[in-house]
Amino acid sequence: MSDLRLSQLAQVLVTHSARLRAGERVLIETFDTPDDFVRALIEAVAAVGAIPFVETHSNRVLRALYQSATTEQMQAIGQHELERMKTMDAYFGIRGASNSLELSDVPQEKMALYQNHWWRPVADQRVNHTKWVVLRYPSPAFAQSAGMSTEAFTDFYFNVCTLDYAKMQKAMTPLHERMLRADRVQLTGETLDLSFSIKNIGAVMCYGERNIPDGECFTCPVRNSVNGHIQFNTASLYQGSLFEGIRFVLKNGKIVEATASSPAQTARLNQILDSDEGARYIGEFSLGFNPYVLQPMRDTLFDEKIAGSFHFTPGQAYTTADNGNRSQVHWDLVYIQRPEYGGGEVRFDGELIRKDGLFVPDDLLGLNPENLK
After folding, report:
1. Could you say which of 36, 103, 291, 366 would form a disulfide bridge with 171 (CB–CB 3.0 to 4.6 Å)?
2. Given this model, what pLDDT does residue 2 score?
3. What is the rounded (10 degree) CA torsion for 71, 299, 330, 290?
4. β-bridge mates for residue 258, sequence order
């Protein structure tokens, strides 16, 4: 990767995503990320007069830490990390991976200790009280997962991450306004028939302030309103395990049946959904429309932005579009409605909003791929 592209991406994070100001303290937390990009970030942060703090992680080292987890250990680390986060004005999470399945053999009960006592308190603090942005970082393993050469994937990555987010913001404003007005949502597709209400929940536009890449507008179902079934047509990597063919049946908001492509995956899926009472309710519904992200690559931060997709999220709701659901789980599961994936429709209060992955009303045409690139 050229220094120019690294610097450009760092500038997007500092000046667009976080809009850092002089004197602000920012924690740069990296996972398996090359030093060159961390250095570019430090330079960009310092150039605006902000104060960079840096912590680097190895996923292999974290695996060993999680496998040895005890309640006392996770509580102690979590408290330490929480106190540090309380001193920060901003947070950059840069997440690379030399092996995306590095955590796949960490027992679920150990991951639950980490999530409950370390990750959740710290994440709540940064999400609700700091400016934050999370970024995936390209690697040969990431390229392989996407089915691309390293060079082609790197070019794709920078196109996705440095697109014109101001243009995207303008184009999604009418969709945001429609979500704010809407009551009933109906989703249909080849393996999909869901209905629910989003009345008075609110909606949030996402255009590069919190995630890079970005390109979604989200809301949340009224907690007890979801009914129907869905079998997701993209695989999902969660807590270090890969899941395929996830299917839910929902009644009055609750996931009452949950299966996956194998008995082992089904067992692990239900173990996650039984983590707490809120894990079987939905905490987010979002439409994705990044014009450069077209195929699943087994990475949630990219897959949830796929043009012509939506994601439907068991677990924790965001306070910015809140149905009151609380959980240690927040699992963005993606369904693509473009024709090559079986097609499908999105309707708000009976009006056709998107068909086969393309927006239909005149005021939403700016969100279709040819108009966002």
Report:
1. 366
2. 56
3. 150
4. 248
